[in-house]
Amino acid sequence: MLKNKKMKIRNNFYRVTIIYCLFITNYLIAHPHVFIDNDVTIVFNQEGLTGIKIKWIFDEMFSSMITHDYDQNKDGIFDLTEIETIKNEAFSNLRKFNYFTRIKIDEKDFIIETAENFSVCLENNCVIYDFFIPCKVPVEIFCKEIRIAIYDDSYYVDILKLDKDCVRFEGKSLMDVDYTWQLKDNTGNPYYFGQIFPQEIILKFKKKNE
């Protein structure tokens, strides 16, 4: 369920500014105009960490604009052609902003080259983006630390904080990995005039002792 605070803005004035100034060209410096519920799935394979699946559930206003502009046949379903158009016009530009995702591997910044497997659907009047960020980190006998933060430091988009039910793990190799994780605010890196602390997933993993 979307938070009630996401439903406060209903003004048609924002149709052009949100879609074309944020997701298509450049975004404006302002208080939040788009609100997102965020789910994260951390994916392992036989070698170790392979990447991160991200799901964004948009507020009703932004969802109505995307639906109005891209559901050409008005059937409430995005077909393959419509999905490709949304990807090109209302998602791919976010590469400039690292898809609002910051990843550190043992305190070193990970450069996000691409997002894969993009899809979009409409559910309960909300547009949902799904995509995958590749990030390969081999599992070793020594502990690796991965920090993942998803936020817009301009605060034009409010990506709501995760709770533990919104962080999942996937992959058969998990049975061979010792891992711990927590959600924590990064109090040393505030944004939006120092008012907001980005939330981080802090993941530590290594090979299980045999």
List keywords for this structure.
disordered N terminus; five-stranded antiparallel sheet; 3 helices; alpha+beta; Acetylcholine Binding Protein, Chain: A; six-stranded mixed sheet
- Major sheet size, sense and barrel closure: 6 strands, mixed
The CATH first-level class comes to Mainly Beta
Mean pLDDT: 87
- For the termini, the CA-CA separation is 43 Å
How does CATH name the architecture? Distorted Sandwich
Characterise this structure.
The structure is a single chain. The chain is of the alpha+beta class and 210 residues long. It has one domain: Acetylcholine Binding Protein, Chain: A (Distorted Sandwich), CATH 2.70.170. The chain is 16% helix and 39% strand. It has three helices and eleven strands. It has helices at residues 14-24, 60-70, 80-90; strands at residues 34-44, 48-58, 101-105, 108-109, 116-123, 126-138, 144-150, 157-159, 167-170, 177-185, 199-207. The strands form two sheets. Strands 1, 2, 5, 6, 8 and 9 form a six-stranded mixed β-sheet that branches. A hairpin with a 2-residue loop joins strand 3 and strand 4. The protein is globular, with a radius of gyration of 18 Å. Mean pLDDT is 87; it is low at 1-21 and 24-28.
